[in-house]
Structures are given as structure tokens and as C-alpha cells.
Amino acid sequence: MKRVLIYLPIVALFVVAIFYILSGTNGAISALVAYLSACLITLSSINSYRKMVEARLRDGIIPQEDRDELDKIEDPHRLYEDDEEIDEKEVSDIIKEEKAKLKHSKRGLKETLKDSAPALAPVKILSYIILALGFIWLKSNSMMILYAYLISLSIPMFVIIYILISEKR
Q1: Which of 2, 79, 106, 156 has a 20 to 30 A CA-CA distance from 148?
Q2: Does residue 112 fall inside a structural domain?
Q3: Alpha helix locations (H) across the chain?
């Protein structure tokens, strides 16, 4: 994540310079507003998702990985685990049990709000408000260069994806 925070400002300078050359001051300002808005939205989404996953791991909702390294290498997709034969009677019993569990486990408002917490995170909502206000400000001051704005909205996402994929290697 540190690499992301290092590369995003560097790419921002490059993007603003390109659009300044292509379409002048208005293009550079449009690109900067869109780029910063997209950075805020993407980083807040990553942060809220990370917090949700950590909370679910802590609460035991998501099971911890219990396989050793050799199993992960030999069968990364768990294709060869538990190759048991299951009778039709067992399958129908399992289906009936699962249907009964679903009927008894109606989700309440509390569970729904707990699951939607990442979508309702204040930082994430604030990021979208900044995006909307930036767009309105650019449009009302006749500074909007649409192609610079739209292209700059997508660049932070690609930068972050590239960095995260390169870290996996």
C-alpha cells in the first residue's frame, strides 16, 4: 500500500502535465479534479473493504486457511479434496436441512446494516460527494474538458491494479 501512495502523486503530475500540453489550463484542472476524486474513491473503497474482511476474519465468519504450504501448491483450487460418493438420499436430506436453516435465519435490519457498512462508510460517501462537487464546479465555471476528466477518472484505478499485481509477483 505504501507503493500506491508513492506512485499516485507521481502519476498525477504526469497526467496533469500531459493534459496541460494537450488542452491548456482547463484540461489540466479538469484532469486534476477527476484524478484526485478517483484516488479518494478508490483508496476509501480499498480501506473499507480491508476493514470489513479483517472484522469478518476476527469474528470467524470467514474461516482461516488451514492448509499447509504443500497442499496449496499441489491443489491450489481444492479440486482433489473429499472425493466421497454421496447418495441421493443424503443429498435430499442436506437440501432439506439447508432450506430449514434458511427459513429460520431471516436477516434483520442489524445484519443488513452490518453487511452494508463498507458501502456506507463516511469516508467513501465523502469521496463521492467530492467527485460530484468537483464536476459541478468545473461545469459551472466553464472549465470542464470532458475527455480529460473521463480519462483521468480511470487512471488511478489502473495504477493501483498494476501496483497490486506487480507486488504479487
Answers
A1: 2
A2: no
A3: 2-59, 69-74, 88-104, 109-115, 122-140, 146-168
C-alpha 150/C-alpha 19 separation (Å) is 12
- Residue 11 maps to a domain: yes
Measured N-to-C along each axis, helices 2-59 and 146-168 cross at an angle, to the nearest 10 degrees, of: 70
User: Quick one: what percent of the chain has pLDDT higher than 70?
Assistant: 71
Mean of pLDDT values over 8-17: 94
Give me the domain span that covers residue 148.
2-61+122-168
In this structure, is residue 113 part of a structural domain?
no
Total of domains in the chain: 1
Q: What is the pLDDT of residues 96-122, one digit of tens each?
A: 777 777 766 666 666 666 666 666 778
Domain membership flag for residue 161: yes
Mean pLDDT of 143-154: 95
CA distance linking residue 46 with residue 152, whole number of Å: 19
151 exposed, middle or buried (CB, 10 Å; 0-12, 13-18, 19+)? middle
* Residue 166 and residue 45 in contact, taking contact as beta carbons nearer than 8 Å: no
Q: What is the mean pLDDT of the chain?
A: 82
Question: Shortest CA distance to 40 belongs to which of 151, 134, 113?
Answer: 134
